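Researcher: Go.
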Amino acid sequence: MRKYIVGAVLAIGILTGVVGLVTMAGCASSKAAAINSFTTGAVTLAASPSSELITLDSMAPGDRVTSPITVGNNGSLSLRYAMSSTATNNDSKGVKDRLVLVVKSGVTTCTNSGFSDDGVLVYTGDMDSTDGKIIGDETQGQQTGDRTLAPGESETLCFQAFLPMVAAGDYKTATTTATFTFNAE
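Model: Structure:
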């Protein structure tokens, strides 16, 4: 008889456990949060003028040419931008290696005469630096020297190229071409 009593107690215990689990499951609830929407923004860099920023024919040692370029953010996201430059000698005289490029921001009057009055120096050096980097670094992520613009914002950079007075060598009728490339992320 003890066998039957122990069996009955075990059966009642198991049945009570199953009923408890079913009862707990009956207390659960869930609700879906529908219509979750994600929209990406746009990074849109603008530069004006887009060609022939600084050009000077018949340049002599000591001559300078100064011109502004406006860099703008036409997108919906803030952006960081960098600028690189490549220059090519169009002959064997190597004048690109003698030209000096100076870039400033915040210049009130971006002309030869107004260039030195104010502004913040951004770059000074060769027309194309060894690594091509003039402003910032186009590598993804924040880099030293990267410039930032909020959506709808723009800034004017003042470029000046000059041939130093001590331009030793035969640079008569020498030509070079430089390409400035702006990259944003």
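Model: The mean pLDDT is 81.
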